[in-house]
Design a protein that fits this description.
This is CAZyme family GH13. This protein is an alpha/beta fold. The protein is built from 17 helices and 22 strands. It has 3 domains: 349 residues, TIM Barrel (Alpha-Beta Barrel), CATH 3.20.20; 57 residues, Oligo-1,6-glucosidase, domain 2 (Alpha-Beta Complex); 81 residues, Golgi alpha-mannosidase II (Immunoglobulin-like). Bound molecules: 1-O-alpha-D-glucopyranosyl-D-fructose and calcium ion. The site of calcium ion (CA) has 7 residues, from loops.
């Protein structure tokens, strides 16, 4: 029997404020915009809202570079708006979760300003400063060969002190030194401030990077095209991570608060279980990245790779089974503000197949064991940026830095330019950041002004107003998924998971089991008919009701133990 918790039965809606809804006509989404759409969010049937960072920030990395944890980025609104939003969310019986970004701060944060001001500063040791190394010519070099996720070395030289500071992301995002207990106390202070204000928990940015191996060894060479190498082995799930997370967990427990930690670079379930095991008192759940890496090529994220059905099956089933058997918990997601749109990535976004695809993926995700996360626009089947986007359309630091580095190293070869731009259209984070498509009016009803990032040209067809009015839309399908999941928590929330017909290369099928019910989810990932045989051991001889279908398999029809013809991208759920 799985242990029950309120947050296990929740579904979460993620809001990327700048791209959600602009209330005051400056082209930037804001908190009052969010407030104006709470009815829409609630009608979808979610229980919790996660807001990406809305704190004061120079916005080098869209708010993941915070310069004041207690105040709000003015274009998004004010601290009072957050209070009002929290209250409005609570009035609707929902919860509100904020983003806690404490692996690093902005370089404009007063802590870092003080830290860099002098070697003697009280704040010097709040960040990670190291002396240079020297090459054979006596030239000063970064302390080691670690790469930054946004290009170049993970170390930035500071002229004034002759030392380097660590930044795993942009150089404007210096890493905090968690070894220093005053830093940990400062983080506790931030957490308590927002929890006391009534926030229900946190999504914790790259939380498994907070403890580093403090001797900073060189990383093994895994990328032959660069001097800078991935050092994750020395900072992902580092030596003191669980000590730190346990202290965080104690605070969360006091407030009965929710937490979801972001954990890139770790695909080892036993490692993750140390953070999310029910008896560990650390985090509620984590986001792993194993599915997100399936289309990243050997030369990094912006090189191609084709994922295979067998890989999808083995990754999903691995996490499903281990978390269930070992009393951990899964965070289920296919999209967020860093990832391309799922219909474009895991299915087919061509107009003919888009709605079917979005429903197929909703079925795929929504009946697994774990807590479901939906990213704004996913409930509409929003797609990746259009094919005519040029480099000038992009806003994201990761893509723009990659392009600058690409031009500097690869030069002017047009063929490789085209290939790289095609990779951005597949995987740039901006695919998720185009404005939410509310209706068919100018700028998709997102704003009365030109938005900070281009609206997708398909908005006259793909928008919320049209879908809310259409009972057969992706939006209403998602609402059904969330409702059905809740109507039968024993099997859909807490039940065990088994892959069905594991070797099938076209159909992803899985069953869920509780002591009283069995459910079967059947998903044809191909845009053509395939034949598929019902497994003999599941419902044979008994009636199994069709609970949900993205075609018209009628509800309450029984499906016999036979070979079926599945329609292109067909998805259905049986319950017996
Ligand atoms: O992302 C961390 C992370 O590892 C990625 O998802 C990241 O976007 C990817 O490695 C780039 O290829 C988190 C936030 O979600 C992201 O938006 C921030 O940029 C990043 O941390 C730094 O705070
Ligand atoms: Ca605005």
């Amino acid at each position: 029997e799985a242990r029950r918790s309120w947050w296990k039965e929740c579904s979460v809606y993620q809001i990327y404020t700048p791209s959600f809804k602009d209330s005051n006509g400056d082209g930037i989404g804001d908190l009052r915009g969010v407030m104006s759409k709470l009815d829409y969010i609630q009608s979808l049937g979610v229980d919790m809202i996660w807001l990406n960072p809305v704190f004061k920030s120079p916005q080098v990395d869209m708010g993941y570079d915070i310069s004041d944890y207690f105040d709000i980025h003015p274009p998004y609104g004010t601290a009072t708006d957050v209070d009002e939003l929290t209250e409005a969310v609570h009035r609707r019986g929902m919860k509100l979760v904020m983003d806690l970004v404490v692996n690093h701060t902005s370089d404009q944060h007063p802590w870092f300003q003080a830290s860099r001001s002098s070697l003697a500063s009280e704040h010097r040791d709040w960040y990670i400063w190291k002396k240079p190394t020297f090459d054979e010519h006596g030239k000063s070099q970064p302390p080691n060969n670690w790469a930054s996720y946004f290009g170049g070395s993970a170390w930035e030289y500071d002229e004034a002190s002759g030392e380097y500071y660590l930044h795993l992301f942009a150089k404007q995002q210096p890493d905090l030194n968690w070894e220093n207990p005053t830093v940990r106390a400062a983080v506790e202070n931030i957490m308590r401030y927002w929890l006391d204000k009534g926030v229900d928990g946190f999504r914790m940015d790259v939380i498994n990077f907070i403890s580093k191996q403090m001797h900073f060894p060189d990383a093994p060479i895994t990328n032959k095209n660069s001097v800078w190498q991935n050092g994750a082995k020395y900072y992902a799930c580092g030596p003191r991570l669980h000590e730190y997370l346990h202290n965080i967990g104690k605070i969360l427990k006091e407030y009965d608060a929710f937490s979801v930690g972001e954990m890139p670079e770790v695909n080892d379930c036993d490692e993750v279980l140390k953070a999310v095991g029910f008896d560990r008192e650390e985090l509620s759940m984590i986001f792993h990245f194993e599915l997100m890496g399936l289309d990243h090529g050997a030369g990094g994220k912006f090189t191609p790779r084709k994922w295979k059905m067998q890989e999808l099956k083995s990754v999903v089933s691995k996490w499903q089974k281990v978390m269930h058997e070992k009393s951990g918990w899964n965070a289920l997601y296919l999209e967020n503000h860093d990832q391309p749109r799922a219909v474009s990535r895991f299915a087919i976004d061509h107009p003919q197949y888009r709605a079917l695809s979005a429903k197929l993926l909703a079925t795929f995700l929504g009946f697994q064991n774990g807590t479901v996360f939906i990213y704004q626009g996913q409930e509409l089947g929003m797609a990746n940026v259009p094919h005519d986007w040029t480099i000038d359309h992009y806003r994201d630091i990761e893509t723009l830095n990659h392009w600058a580095e690409f031009l500097a190293t690869r030069g002017e070869k047009t063929a490789s330019h085209t290939a790289t731009l095609a990779e951005y259209r597949k995987k740039s984070r901006d695919n998720a950041r185009t404005p939410m498509q509310w209706d068919s009016s100018a700028h998709a009803g997102f704003s009365s002004a030109i938005p900070w990032i281009s609206v997708h040209e398909d908005y006259p067809v793909w928008n919320a107003t049209a879908q809310v009015a259409d009972a057969k839309s992706v939006y209403h399908y998602w609402a059904s998924v969330l409702r059905l999941r809740k109507s039968c928590p024993d099997v859909f929330v807490y039940g065990s998971f088994e892959l069905v017909s594991r070797d099938d290369a076209e159909v992803f099928a899985y069953s869920r089991h509780s002591s009283t019910n069995t459910a079967l989810v059947v998903l044809n990932f191909e845009p053509r008919e395939v034949s598929w045989t019902m497994p003999k051991n599941l419902f044979c001889g008994q009636a199994a009701e069709v609970l949900l279908s993205n075609y018209t398999r009628s509800k309450a029809s029984t499906i016999a133990c036979e070979t079926l013809t599945l329609a292109p991208l067909e998805a259905f759920v049986l319950l017996g």
